[in-house]
Design a protein that fits this description.
Elements lengths: L3 E7 L4 E7 L6 E9 L2 E4 L11 E6 L8 E8 L4 E6 L12 E4 L5 E6 L9 E6 L8 E5 L7 E2 L5 E10 L3 E10 L5 E7 L3 E4 L5 E8 L6 E8 L10 E11 L17 E4 L8 E5 L4 E8 L8 E4 L9 E11 L5 E3 L8 E3 L7 E8 L2 H12 L4 E5 L7 E14 L7 E11 L15 H8 L2 H7 L3 H5 L6
Antiparallel strand pairs: 1-2, 2-5, 3-4, 3-6, 6-22, 7-21, 8-11, 9-10, 10-19, 11-18, 12-18, 13-17, 13-19, 14-15, 14-16, 14-18, 20-21, 23-24, 23-28, 24-27, 25-26, 27-30, 28-29, 29-30
Amino acid sequence: MSITITATPDTERRAVSLVVDAGTPGSTLVSLRRTDANGAADVRLPILPSTFEAFTVDDHEAALTGPIEYEATIVTGAEEVLRENLVKSPRGATTANTDGYGVGGLGELGASPATGHAGTDEATMTWTTAAAGGGATFGFGRPGQQDITVESGSTITASLYVRVSQTRDVFPILRFFNASGQGVGLDVQGTAFTAMPPDQLTRMSVTAIVPAGATRVRIGARIPNLAGIGSGFSLRISAAVAERGDHLLPYFDGSTPLPGTWARWTGAANASSSQLYIPAGTEQRASAVVSFDALDPFTWILHPAVVPEDAVRVTFADWSMSRTSHSTQSDVIDRPDPIVNRGPLGMRSGSLEAWCEDYTAVRALEAIAAAEETVMLRQIPFPGLDGYFEIRSVAPRIERATARPGRVRWTVTLGLVEVQRPSGPLLAAPLWTYGAILAEHGTYRGIRDSFETYRDLLLNRETA
């Protein structure tokens, strides 16, 4: 999957830094969601261009305790080829695409339909006489028939599934050839499977750097010692993959995609290389989970939609909140019980008593209350207690420390009423652009006359 989301907690700023990469230009964002101790919500976003390849955003509203999970959903803007299997016939098994050599007995080539990995055919090499000793190799990429082309100096990782009818040591190999079909260098051997049990389908792999002068490669399974092999013994191979790079990845071919992807042959089915890809306009998802560590157990009050860094730090002293039902009850004559019209339970209202570090913090709280904007409460001690509130009152007072004459502590009681999360520049909210504002107001001077401050412009709040 090409889309990725990277989430990094920024303890200093109490934010999670997010990088969302669609993998292709021209992509569009469907949603960016957060799930944490406070519940699930869209991540507050800046105004994004209509299409993008990648963007970054800081999330200042995530819970400060517990795991935080992010999920991005994106519609890709362009087709992206994820992988290419260079083996031209990984599904079928014929004498045209497989080859055996160094058999040490008469090895007859054949096929076993749909018995290999992922329903592929198994290519079989069966001994019709007892082996005379030596070793044997059986592989895909018969020179001159269905060449597996490679580039000198590149890295290639190949794998195939192997099965034997009698316990044997087996290892995977790569054999390189030049344009004339002559061998180049020595065979590259992968990790051996010692005493592979009979009839066990086993994946084997090998990685190598293509030697100078090589243009083609054969992928095979080798039995180094044929001693004791009698008539009827078989070596089977299936589901071969050869890819550029040093990563061993799950098998695929042009008819066998992986979950969330598409697959195709670059030419004729089972006679050409194959590609794993994501077409343009495909909805893709990615997720990431992070959590904060080593934060001081303070509480922050801030404007989430405007300047999240301008938060006031306080310490919980007291918390008193209640929720009132919106149900109504009506008494009826000659009826012992009332008629109840049930309504939802209201949101929280009450007071927060907090200790401020100094009078400067008190004034900052008063400024937040005077801004006529929703505030957010973020705190550490109680997961799930965060919320969005309107400040109804601010009542500061001085508490003198009796045990330490001359020392005071500023205490502020905030009257709070919980409200729904403010929209602000959220993905789900209608977003404005300078072009749209200009078209509505005619001139930039008209914009200046309509919005008293830049903050009002950000919130699209015109001057009365």
